[in-house]
Amino acid sequence: MTPVLLVELNRGELHSVEAPAEFATSEPFSVELRNHGEAVHVHVRADDALAAVARIDTDGNLYVERETTQSVPVGVEDVDSPVTGTLEIATGYGAEKRTVEVTVEPQSDGQSVDVDETLSRPKQPNRDTDTTPLSERFAGALPGRRVIPVLVLGAVAIAVAAAVANAVRSPPVLVGAGVVVGAVLVALVALLR
């Protein structure tokens, strides 16, 4: 969107000119002449400093109809360092004038970095990632000292059940051995959770 320098005409009395004291831009802009009263001739002129980097895209002498708004496009050249000059807006054949200090700034190359106070704060760790060292994770996965005797007892129960089932080879003994093995496995899973 084109920047706009708003100038109010005839708002308080005939030929009055109201404009901001200063205006800064790095791109072409528009001087918007908003007439609140009778039709008026307006002259828009840049001083030598501003004219070196900006051009008014009309003849500068305008007739603004009653209760209308007229835009005056102003082209701006690329500059390496800020250039400041004045833009004069006059009505009533120069009887009323207002000057605006206009600064044409270098265009941003899009590679600027905005810095704010968030850079001064240390980065908070991401709560979703597990930062537990690998050695502690393995230590947590291994059974504790109290669990080892239960594991040994479970292994012995499974071995005895398997040996008895292998020796007897009877269907009721095989079912009983399966029940013992299943119960030991369920107990081990519950113990290790």
Structure description:
- With 193 residues, this protein is α+β, with helices and mostly antiparallel strands.
- It folds into two domains: 4-108, Sandwich (Immunoglobulin-like); 137-192.
- 29% of the residues lie in helices and 31% in strands.
- The protein contains four helices and ten strands.
- It has helices at residues 48-51, 134-141, 147-168, 171-192; strands at residues 4-9, 17-18, 22-25, 29-35, 40-46, 54-56, 61-64, 69-76, 83-91, 96-104.
- The chain has a five-stranded mixed beta sheet with strand order 2-1-4-8-6, with no helix packed on it. Strands 3-10-9-5-7 form a five-stranded mixed beta sheet.
- The longest helix has 22 residues, at 147-168.
- The radius of gyration is 43 Å and the shape is rod-shaped.
- The chain starts with a strand and ends with a helix.
- The model has no long low-confidence stretch (mean pLDDT 84).
- Pfam families: DUF7524.
- InterPro entries: DUF7524.
- The chain crosses the membrane at residues 147-167, 173-192.
- Keywords: Membrane, Transmembrane, Transmembrane helix.
- Residues 103-136 are annotated as: Disordered.
Lay out the secondary structure.
Elements: E1 4-9, E2 17-18, E3 22-25, E4 29-35, E5 40-46, H1 48-51, E6 54-56, E7 61-64, E8 69-76, E9 83-91, E10 96-104, H2 134-141, H3 147-168, H4 171-192
Parallel strand pairs: 1-4, 3-10
Antiparallel strand pairs: 1-2, 4-8, 5-7, 5-9, 6-8, 9-10
